[in-house]
Amino acid sequence: MYLIRIFFVFSLLFFSCEKEPNPNTYANNYGKGTYILTDNGLSFIKKNSSVVENQVFKTVNGAMIKNPKSLLIYGTKLYIVGQDLYSVNINTLELLGQVGGFSNASGCAIIPQNRAFVSDKDESLVKLVDLNSYKITSEIETGTNTSPSFIINKYDKSFILNSGNNQMYDSTLVTITYKDNLIPLADFSGNLIIGKNPHSAVSSGNVKILCTGIYDINNPSNNTESSFYNIYPTDLLINFSKDLSGIYNAKNLIETASGNNFYFTAEGGVYRTNTSVTNINSIISINTDVLSITEEQYAVNDSTNAWSNILYMNDLNNLGKVYKYNTTLSSFVDTISVNGNILDITFK
Protein backbone atom coordinates (compact mmCIF):
# COMPACT_ATOMS: atom_id res chain seq x y z
CA MET A 1 0.00 0.00 0.00
CA TYR A 2 2.85 2.36 0.87
CA LEU A 3 4.44 1.82 -2.58
CA ILE A 4 1.11 2.47 -4.27
CA ARG A 5 0.78 5.77 -2.42
CA ILE A 6 4.30 6.80 -3.43
CA PHE A 7 3.57 5.94 -7.10
CA PHE A 8 0.35 7.95 -6.94
CA VAL A 9 2.16 11.03 -5.58
CA PHE A 10 4.88 10.85 -8.26
CA SER A 11 2.22 10.41 -10.94
CA LEU A 12 0.50 13.61 -9.82
CA LEU A 13 3.79 15.50 -9.84
CA PHE A 14 4.71 14.20 -13.31
CA PHE A 15 1.42 15.07 -14.97
CA SER A 16 1.16 18.44 -13.23
CA CYS A 17 4.58 19.40 -14.66
CA GLU A 18 3.73 18.43 -18.21
CA LYS A 19 3.67 21.40 -20.65
CA GLU A 20 0.15 22.45 -21.45
CA PRO A 21 -0.76 22.16 -25.13
CA ASN A 22 -0.81 25.35 -27.17
CA PRO A 23 -4.43 26.55 -27.09
CA ASN A 24 -4.02 28.41 -30.41
CA THR A 25 -4.88 26.51 -33.55
CA TYR A 26 -4.59 28.09 -36.97
CA ALA A 27 -6.76 26.90 -39.83
CA ASN A 28 -5.59 26.93 -43.46
CA ASN A 29 -8.26 29.43 -44.44
CA TYR A 30 -6.14 31.70 -46.60
CA GLY A 31 -3.34 31.07 -49.11
CA LYS A 32 -4.26 31.69 -52.76
CA GLY A 33 -6.19 34.87 -53.31
CA THR A 34 -6.03 38.66 -53.22
CA TYR A 35 -4.55 40.58 -50.29
CA ILE A 36 -5.49 44.24 -49.84
CA LEU A 37 -3.70 46.32 -47.22
CA THR A 38 -5.46 49.39 -45.83
CA ASP A 39 -4.82 51.77 -42.97
CA ASN A 40 -7.38 49.69 -41.05
CA GLY A 41 -5.67 46.34 -41.59
CA LEU A 42 -5.59 43.45 -44.03
CA SER A 43 -8.45 42.28 -46.25
CA PHE A 44 -8.56 38.97 -48.15
CA ILE A 45 -10.51 37.52 -51.07
CA LYS A 46 -10.08 33.79 -51.63
CA LYS A 47 -9.23 32.73 -55.19
CA ASN A 48 -12.36 32.13 -57.31
CA SER A 49 -14.49 33.91 -54.71
CA SER A 50 -15.95 37.40 -54.47
CA VAL A 51 -16.36 37.44 -50.69
CA VAL A 52 -14.24 40.10 -48.97
CA GLU A 53 -12.94 39.26 -45.50
CA ASN A 54 -11.83 42.37 -43.62
CA GLN A 55 -9.44 42.60 -40.66
CA VAL A 56 -8.13 39.06 -41.22
CA PHE A 57 -4.75 39.72 -39.55
CA LYS A 58 -6.48 40.99 -36.42
CA THR A 59 -8.97 38.11 -36.48
CA VAL A 60 -6.18 35.52 -36.53
CA ASN A 61 -3.61 37.21 -34.29
CA GLY A 62 -5.69 39.43 -32.03
CA ALA A 63 -3.65 42.54 -32.80
CA MET A 64 -3.60 45.38 -35.31
CA ILE A 65 -0.81 46.06 -37.81
CA LYS A 66 0.95 49.24 -36.68
CA ASN A 67 1.29 51.90 -39.37
CA PRO A 68 0.79 49.50 -42.34
CA LYS A 69 2.52 50.42 -45.62
CA SER A 70 3.12 47.57 -48.05
CA LEU A 71 2.90 43.81 -48.74
CA LEU A 72 5.29 41.21 -50.12
CA ILE A 73 4.64 37.50 -50.73
CA TYR A 74 7.66 35.20 -50.89
CA GLY A 75 7.19 31.42 -50.89
CA THR A 76 4.90 30.44 -48.02
CA LYS A 77 5.26 33.76 -46.19
CA LEU A 78 3.45 37.07 -46.35
CA TYR A 79 5.59 40.00 -45.24
CA ILE A 80 3.92 43.19 -44.08
CA VAL A 81 5.93 46.39 -43.82
CA GLY A 82 4.63 48.77 -41.18
CA GLN A 83 6.14 50.29 -38.09
CA ASP A 84 7.72 46.84 -37.79
CA LEU A 85 8.34 44.05 -40.29
CA TYR A 86 5.79 41.25 -39.84
CA SER A 87 6.36 37.69 -41.07
CA VAL A 88 3.11 35.76 -41.54
CA ASN A 89 2.23 32.22 -42.64
CA ILE A 90 0.46 32.71 -45.97
CA ASN A 91 -1.96 29.81 -45.42
CA THR A 92 -3.06 30.56 -41.85
CA LEU A 93 -2.00 34.22 -41.38
CA GLU A 94 -0.37 33.20 -38.11
CA LEU A 95 2.22 35.78 -37.08
CA LEU A 96 5.57 33.97 -37.15
CA GLY A 97 7.80 36.84 -36.13
CA GLN A 98 8.02 40.61 -35.82
CA VAL A 99 11.05 42.86 -36.19
CA GLY A 100 11.27 46.38 -34.76
CA GLY A 101 14.03 48.97 -34.85
CA PHE A 102 12.95 51.08 -37.85
CA SER A 103 12.36 54.81 -37.93
CA ASN A 104 10.45 54.75 -41.21
CA ALA A 105 10.49 51.35 -42.90
CA SER A 106 9.58 51.50 -46.57
CA GLY A 107 10.73 48.81 -49.01
CA CYS A 108 11.46 45.14 -48.39
CA ALA A 109 13.16 42.37 -50.37
CA ILE A 110 13.79 38.76 -49.33
CA ILE A 111 17.31 37.51 -50.05
CA PRO A 112 19.06 34.10 -49.72
CA GLN A 113 19.86 32.43 -46.40
CA ASN A 114 16.46 33.43 -44.97
CA ARG A 115 17.26 37.13 -44.73
CA ALA A 116 15.58 40.38 -45.73
CA PHE A 117 16.65 43.88 -46.66
CA VAL A 118 14.41 46.65 -45.31
CA SER A 119 14.93 50.26 -46.34
CA ASP A 120 14.66 52.89 -43.60
CA LYS A 121 13.96 56.25 -45.22
CA ASP A 122 14.51 58.41 -42.16
CA GLU A 123 17.91 56.90 -41.35
CA SER A 124 19.33 56.64 -44.92
CA LEU A 125 19.96 52.96 -44.27
CA VAL A 126 19.10 49.52 -45.54
CA LYS A 127 18.84 47.15 -42.59
CA LEU A 128 19.63 43.44 -42.86
CA VAL A 129 17.13 41.24 -41.00
CA ASP A 130 17.77 37.64 -39.96
CA LEU A 131 14.43 35.89 -40.49
CA ASN A 132 15.41 33.04 -38.17
CA SER A 133 16.04 35.20 -35.11
CA TYR A 134 13.87 38.12 -36.28
CA LYS A 135 16.60 40.63 -35.48
CA ILE A 136 18.44 43.35 -37.38
CA THR A 137 22.00 42.11 -37.83
CA SER A 138 23.67 44.88 -39.85
CA GLU A 139 23.09 48.22 -41.59
CA ILE A 140 24.21 49.51 -45.00
CA GLU A 141 24.38 53.25 -45.70
CA THR A 142 22.73 54.50 -48.89
CA GLY A 143 24.22 58.02 -48.88
CA THR A 144 24.01 61.17 -46.79
CA ASN A 145 20.46 62.55 -46.52
CA THR A 146 19.06 59.97 -48.93
CA SER A 147 15.61 58.38 -48.61
CA PRO A 148 15.92 54.72 -49.63
CA SER A 149 12.54 53.24 -50.47
CA PHE A 150 11.80 50.70 -53.21
CA ILE A 151 13.96 47.54 -53.34
CA ILE A 152 14.13 44.95 -56.11
CA ASN A 153 16.43 41.93 -56.57
CA LYS A 154 18.29 40.89 -59.69
CA TYR A 155 20.93 38.15 -59.91
CA ASP A 156 23.22 38.61 -56.87
CA LYS A 157 22.20 42.18 -55.99
CA SER A 158 19.44 44.26 -54.52
CA PHE A 159 18.72 47.56 -56.26
CA ILE A 160 17.59 50.30 -53.88
CA LEU A 161 15.95 53.48 -55.14
CA ASN A 162 16.64 56.69 -53.24
CA SER A 163 13.27 58.30 -53.82
CA GLY A 164 13.67 61.85 -52.53
CA ASN A 165 10.76 64.32 -52.53
CA ASN A 166 9.68 67.65 -54.00
CA GLN A 167 11.64 69.66 -51.45
CA MET A 168 14.87 67.66 -51.77
CA TYR A 169 14.92 65.43 -54.82
CA ASP A 170 17.29 62.50 -55.27
CA SER A 171 18.57 60.86 -58.43
CA THR A 172 20.46 57.81 -57.26
CA LEU A 173 20.10 54.09 -57.03
CA VAL A 174 22.50 51.97 -55.03
CA THR A 175 23.22 48.25 -55.13
CA ILE A 176 23.95 45.83 -52.31
CA THR A 177 25.48 42.47 -53.20
CA TYR A 178 23.87 39.76 -51.10
CA LYS A 179 25.74 36.64 -52.23
CA ASP A 180 28.96 35.42 -53.80
CA ASN A 181 28.21 31.89 -55.01
CA LEU A 182 26.84 30.43 -51.77
CA ILE A 183 28.45 32.91 -49.38
CA PRO A 184 25.94 35.30 -47.73
CA LEU A 185 26.93 38.95 -48.09
CA ALA A 186 25.44 42.37 -47.43
CA ASP A 187 27.98 44.67 -49.09
CA PHE A 188 27.46 48.06 -50.72
CA SER A 189 28.56 47.48 -54.32
CA GLY A 190 27.72 50.53 -56.43
CA ASN A 191 25.61 53.58 -57.21
CA LEU A 192 24.30 55.26 -60.31
CA ILE A 193 22.83 58.67 -61.13
CA ILE A 194 19.50 58.39 -62.95
CA GLY A 195 16.33 60.55 -63.16
CA LYS A 196 14.82 62.70 -60.44
CA ASN A 197 13.07 60.82 -57.62
CA PRO A 198 13.19 57.16 -58.77
CA HIS A 199 10.06 55.48 -57.49
CA SER A 200 9.55 51.89 -58.69
CA ALA A 201 11.12 49.20 -60.87
CA VAL A 202 10.66 45.82 -62.55
CA SER A 203 13.40 43.27 -63.20
CA SER A 204 12.50 40.98 -66.11
CA GLY A 205 15.50 41.12 -68.43
CA ASN A 206 17.28 44.30 -67.40
CA VAL A 207 16.23 46.46 -64.46
CA LYS A 208 13.70 49.09 -65.59
CA ILE A 209 13.13 52.10 -63.38
CA LEU A 210 10.39 54.71 -63.37
CA CYS A 211 11.38 58.13 -62.01
CA THR A 212 8.64 60.43 -60.76
CA GLY A 213 10.38 63.71 -61.50
CA ILE A 214 9.38 66.77 -59.49
CA TYR A 215 5.66 67.34 -59.03
CA ASP A 216 4.75 70.26 -56.77
CA ILE A 217 1.06 71.18 -56.82
CA ASN A 218 1.81 74.37 -54.91
CA ASN A 219 4.52 75.53 -57.33
CA PRO A 220 3.84 74.01 -60.77
CA SER A 221 6.72 75.99 -62.27
CA ASN A 222 9.07 73.64 -60.40
CA ASN A 223 7.63 70.54 -62.08
CA THR A 224 9.78 68.31 -64.26
CA GLU A 225 8.66 65.45 -66.49
CA SER A 226 8.93 61.84 -65.37
CA SER A 227 11.55 59.56 -66.91
CA PHE A 228 12.30 55.89 -67.61
CA TYR A 229 15.66 54.09 -67.31
CA ASN A 230 16.75 50.67 -68.54
CA ILE A 231 19.79 49.44 -66.57
CA TYR A 232 22.17 46.55 -67.26
CA PRO A 233 22.16 44.73 -63.87
CA THR A 234 25.59 43.10 -64.16
CA ASP A 235 27.72 46.22 -64.66
CA LEU A 236 25.28 48.98 -63.59
CA LEU A 237 25.35 50.79 -66.93
CA ILE A 238 22.44 52.59 -68.57
CA ASN A 239 21.10 50.72 -71.60
CA PHE A 240 18.76 53.54 -72.54
CA SER A 241 16.78 56.33 -70.88
CA LYS A 242 13.85 58.44 -71.93
CA ASP A 243 12.02 61.50 -70.66
CA LEU A 244 8.26 60.87 -70.68
CA SER A 245 6.93 63.81 -72.65
CA GLY A 246 3.97 65.44 -70.95
CA ILE A 247 3.92 62.86 -68.11
CA TYR A 248 4.21 64.11 -64.53
CA ASN A 249 4.24 62.35 -61.15
CA ALA A 250 4.68 58.85 -62.64
CA LYS A 251 4.70 56.02 -60.08
CA ASN A 252 3.88 52.33 -59.57
CA LEU A 253 5.61 50.72 -62.56
CA ILE A 254 4.28 47.21 -63.26
CA GLU A 255 4.50 44.85 -66.23
CA THR A 256 2.45 42.09 -67.85
CA ALA A 257 3.38 38.44 -67.27
CA SER A 258 4.75 38.28 -70.82
CA GLY A 259 6.78 41.44 -70.30
CA ASN A 260 5.46 43.07 -73.48
CA ASN A 261 3.76 46.07 -71.84
CA PHE A 262 4.28 48.35 -68.85
CA TYR A 263 1.60 50.15 -66.86
CA PHE A 264 2.02 53.00 -64.40
CA THR A 265 0.08 55.76 -62.64
CA ALA A 266 0.62 59.48 -63.22
CA GLU A 267 -1.31 62.70 -63.21
CA GLY A 268 -4.36 62.04 -65.35
CA GLY A 269 -4.74 58.35 -64.53
CA VAL A 270 -3.23 55.04 -65.63
CA TYR A 271 -0.92 54.77 -68.64
CA ARG A 272 0.35 51.92 -70.82
CA THR A 273 3.58 51.78 -72.82
CA ASN A 274 5.64 49.23 -74.74
CA THR A 275 9.04 47.88 -73.71
CA SER A 276 10.94 50.52 -75.66
CA VAL A 277 8.73 53.27 -74.18
CA THR A 278 8.10 54.69 -77.64
CA ASN A 279 4.32 54.72 -77.41
CA ILE A 280 2.61 55.94 -74.23
CA ASN A 281 -1.18 55.93 -73.99
CA SER A 282 -3.58 57.05 -71.30
CA ILE A 283 -6.01 54.16 -70.79
CA ILE A 284 -7.89 55.09 -67.59
CA SER A 285 -8.76 58.55 -66.30
CA ILE A 286 -8.93 57.96 -62.58
CA ASN A 287 -7.20 59.51 -59.58
CA THR A 288 -5.22 56.54 -58.21
CA ASP A 289 -1.97 55.86 -56.38
CA VAL A 290 -2.07 52.04 -56.01
CA LEU A 291 -1.73 49.77 -59.05
CA SER A 292 -1.23 45.99 -59.24
CA ILE A 293 -1.58 43.38 -61.96
CA THR A 294 -2.48 39.69 -62.16
CA GLU A 295 -3.85 37.20 -64.69
CA GLU A 296 -7.43 36.04 -64.30
CA GLN A 297 -9.91 33.99 -66.27
CA TYR A 298 -13.07 35.65 -67.58
CA ALA A 299 -16.11 34.53 -69.54
CA VAL A 300 -16.07 35.41 -73.25
CA ASN A 301 -19.57 33.96 -73.68
CA ASP A 302 -21.72 31.22 -72.12
CA SER A 303 -19.40 28.44 -73.31
CA THR A 304 -15.95 30.02 -73.64
CA ASN A 305 -13.45 31.37 -71.12
CA ALA A 306 -10.22 33.26 -71.70
CA TRP A 307 -7.35 34.73 -69.71
CA SER A 308 -6.43 38.39 -69.42
CA ASN A 309 -4.19 40.73 -67.48
CA ILE A 310 -6.34 42.40 -64.82
CA LEU A 311 -5.34 45.72 -63.29
CA TYR A 312 -6.35 46.42 -59.70
CA MET A 313 -6.39 50.08 -58.63
CA ASN A 314 -7.78 52.28 -55.88
CA ASP A 315 -9.83 55.45 -56.27
CA LEU A 316 -8.58 58.41 -54.27
CA ASN A 317 -11.95 60.11 -54.76
CA ASN A 318 -13.83 57.09 -53.40
CA LEU A 319 -11.89 55.63 -50.47
CA GLY A 320 -12.22 51.93 -49.83
CA LYS A 321 -12.98 51.08 -53.47
CA VAL A 322 -10.79 48.81 -55.64
CA TYR A 323 -11.54 48.67 -59.36
CA LYS A 324 -10.68 45.72 -61.61
CA TYR A 325 -9.84 46.53 -65.23
CA ASN A 326 -9.64 43.86 -67.94
CA THR A 327 -6.87 44.93 -70.35
CA THR A 328 -8.15 42.63 -73.12
CA LEU A 329 -11.66 44.03 -73.00
CA SER A 330 -10.43 47.55 -72.17
CA SER A 331 -13.16 47.87 -69.56
CA PHE A 332 -13.83 47.73 -65.84
CA VAL A 333 -15.22 44.37 -64.78
CA ASP A 334 -15.69 44.59 -61.00
CA THR A 335 -15.56 46.83 -57.92
CA ILE A 336 -14.34 45.64 -54.52
CA SER A 337 -15.21 47.43 -51.27
CA VAL A 338 -12.88 47.21 -48.26
CA ASN A 339 -12.51 49.01 -44.95
CA GLY A 340 -10.06 51.91 -45.00
CA ASN A 341 -7.70 53.79 -47.27
CA ILE A 342 -5.99 51.35 -49.66
CA LEU A 343 -2.19 51.15 -49.39
CA ASP A 344 -1.16 48.05 -51.35
CA ILE A 345 -2.56 45.05 -53.24
CA THR A 346 -0.84 41.74 -53.96
CA PHE A 347 -1.75 38.23 -55.07
CA LYS A 348 -0.89 34.62 -54.28
Textual characterization of the structure:
The chain is mostly beta strands. Helix content is 6%, strand content 51%. The protein has 2 helices and 28 strands. The strands form 7 sheets. Strands 3-2-1-28 form a 4-stranded antiparallel β-sheet. A 4-stranded antiparallel β-sheet has the order 4-5-6-7. A hairpin with a 5-residue loop joins strand 2 (41-46) and strand 3. The radius of gyration is 24 Å and the shape is globular. The termini are far apart.
Order of helices and strands: HEEEHEEEEEEEEEEEEEEEEEEEEEEEEE
Uncertain segments: 6-22
**Approximate strand percentage:** over 45%
Query: Major β-sheet, in short?
Result: 4 strands, antiparallel
Rg (C-alpha, Å):
24 Å
Structural class: mainly beta
Helical fraction equals: under 10%
Shape: globular
Q: Which oligomeric form is depicted?
A: single chain
Tags for this model:
6% helix, mainly beta, four-stranded antiparallel beta sheet, single chain, 348 residues, 28 strands, 2 helices
What would a concise description of this structure say?
The protein is mostly beta strands and 348 residues long.
What's the structural blueprint in terms of helices and strands?
Blueprint: H1 2-17, E1 33-38, E2 41-46, E3 52-53, H2 56-61, E4 70-74, E5 77-81, E6 85-89, E7 95-99, E8 105-111, E9 115-120, E10 125-130, E11 135-141, E12 148-154, E13 157-162, E14 172-180, E15 183-193, E16 198-202, E17 207-211, E18 227-232, E19 237-243, E20 251-255, E21 261-266, E22 269-274, E23 280-284, E24 291-299, E25 305-314, E26 321-326, E27 331-337, E28 342-347
Antiparallel strand pairs: 1-2, 1-28, 2-3, 4-5, 5-6, 6-7, 8-9, 9-10, 10-11, 12-13, 13-14, 14-15, 16-17, 17-18, 18-19, 20-21, 21-22, 22-23, 24-25, 25-26, 26-27
